[in-house]
Amino acid sequence: MKCPECGSYNVIYFPDRGEYVCGACGLVLSERTVDRGPEWRVFTPEQRLRKSRVGAPETYRIHDRGLTTTIDWKNKDYSGKVISGLGYLRAKKLRRLQRRIRISGSTERKMVQILSKINRTVATLGLPESVLEEASRIARMIVDAKLVRGRFIDNYVAAAIYAACRFQKVNRTLDDIARKIGVPKKSAAQAYRKIYKLFKEKPPILRPQEYIPKLVSSLKLPAVVQTKAAEILKLARERGLTAGKGPIGLAAASIYCASVFLDFKKTQREIAEKANVTEVTVRNRYKEIIDYFMIRVNL
Hints:
It contains twelve helices and three strands, in the order βββαααααααααααα. By secondary structure, it is mainly alpha-helical. The protein folds into four domains: 1-54, N-terminal domain of TfIIb, CATH 2.20.25.10; 60-102, no CATH class; 106-196, Cyclin-like (Cyclin A, domain 1), CATH 1.10.472.10; 208-298, Cyclin A, domain 1 (Orthogonal Bundle), CATH 1.10.472.10. Strands 1-2-3 form a three-stranded antiparallel beta sheet, with no helix packed on it. Helix 3 runs antiparallel to helix 4 (129-144) and helix 10 packs antiparallel against helix 11.
């Protein structure tokens, strides 16, 4: 492909964007192109079947990763001919055996139970698909490490979903998830501390700014409060006031500061209830921020 602008043949293809870009002048020659995949040369039907890419991708949310073999109930062969006689009895027996071996052993039954609970909870909380996939991956780690026993499954389900939210940077607290599942927060926290040791790459800590949009929306405050609260948190972080403080408490205190500055009537108790923190926490963080800025103004 030749660039019409500079005449260069140095054209680069970016598959993630579907664009052809000239490497010399940077002109976008084509965009939103269809990725047709690699073009294979095949010479026999066996090679065509071996190189075929059809079928659903693997997924962690199903206990066998979606690689299930299904024997159809239509009782027809590959050509559409109806199976009868001994062939019908053989297919019926194979279906019965397939159902048995698909979930064989206590480990797979436990995996099915945990994944079904994770699927229901993630759907109830309205979390994205990425969180569901990550939580299912973590559940496999938990079962392989033999941490789950009997009635403590719900604790590990809550811990797995919370860890997935941390990895995907979705602002959900452990208290919210534990309350939705119906387990004590203390028990879910104990389970999370156990699975935390299994991670080679530790989940990132959410910044206070990531809690602001949800709190502002739940408090029914305008977007200007969200902007002002983010500015307050940025200044507080630059001055070293956020070190060692809980992110949710800082977010709640910054929203209270912004509502006071912009003359929106919200009490510390209302904000503390929405943030699931104590009123004392909001008051202390608010005093620290206000006292510092008052000192800076007086200087």
